[in-house]
Amino acid sequence: MNQGRPIYSISAVARMLNVPVATLRTWEDRYGQVVPTRNASGHRLFTRSEVEELRFIREQMSGGASVADAHR
């Protein structure tokens, strides 16, 4: 599968990672590590690799890392 094609909406990513949509928006605004592309309507679309990066961050936090450390 194409890792770079933006196909996942923010709500789909939130469900996959079991985090609120607002959390994903905050991570984007505050840390800027994962910045999804936007479609013509301005909705965020995430690639598979971006989802995996966010999954890694969430797992680091579940393991006790702070949000800032997980994003580094």
Give an overview of the whole structure.
The chain is built from four helices and three strands. With 72 residues, it is mainly alpha-helical. A hairpin with a 5-residue loop joins β2 (37-38) and β3 (44-46). The longest helix has 15 residues, at 48-62.
Supply the key terms.
globular, 4 helices, 72 residues, mainly alpha, three-stranded antiparallel β-sheet, single chain
Quick gist of this model?
This protein is 54% helix and 10% strand.
| Percent range of helical residues | 40-55%
Order of helices and strands: EHHEEHH
Number of strands: 3
**Outline type:** globular
Biggest β-sheet description: 3 strands, antiparallel
Total helical elements: 4
Mean pLDDT: 92
Task: Record the strand order, biggest sheet.
Answer: 1-3-2
Q: Taking Cα atoms only, what radius of gyration do you get, to the nearest Å?
A: 12 Å
User: Could you say which structural class the secondary elements and strand pairing correspond to?
Assistant: mainly alpha
Low-confidence stretches are none
Cα-to-Cα separation, first versus last residue: 27 Å
Strand content: 5-15%
